[in-house]
């Protein structure tokens, strides 16, 4: 091979490298969220995704120089978008569980939650085990769905599954179910914003602590590291606390 040819090949490789690193710099990460989960992720009247999770991930992205784009994505099938490559991250108040960890990777926790029961104001329910034979509404495939399955059995006909948590709560208001089991923050938010809803909330000491994490495709170490570094940075410099206080008070 003559030196002219070599030079040409070398410059082609160089151009390729340049192009590649530019492509990386310009990468916008596609973020899946089921935006029917206020105050964590919901749509404002301009149809933009807003909420606690959004503010947290935006702050993380700013710290670690990532470009992100939120895409409202149905909860059912949301995790599959990682393995297909349609989305790079899921931030959707996703509880980190051992089963989920088998099919995707999670960031360090960014929020602590637990289940909470919502019932009508006049309901006699006072604890979780009272739901044993009652009709209970949950969002399909959530940790609320999991806890009620443990109480009633997987195939219980009294577990009524809904596409979103607000739909389950609507059904409770309409009397179609006796109770809803869902994440505390969402139930509290709903009751606070719907004073006419005639619902009350029941906390049960047997519910375990849950931790929300940001999910990425299994094995995407580089992205996970970037997220965790950003998360640690916003926790260290007070940004996280500011966001927390904005949504949940002190
Ligand atoms: N934390 C619960 C879970 O991981 C519920 C999350 C539902 N999130 C949502 N945006 N709908 O199962």
UniProtKB/TrEMBL annotation:
The keyword Signal applies. InterPro entries: Iontro_rcpt_C, Solute-binding_3/MltF_N. It holds the Pfam family SBP_bac_3. Residues 28-250 form the Ionotropic glutamate receptor C-terminal domain. The keyword Signal applies. CDD domains: PBP2_Arg_Lys_His (cd13624). Residues 1-25 form the signal peptide. Keywords: Signal. Residues 28-250 form the Solute-binding protein family 3/N-terminal domain. Gene3D superfamilies: Periplasmic binding protein-like II (3.40.190.10). It comes from the Bacteria. This is Basic amino acid ABC transporter substrate-binding protein.
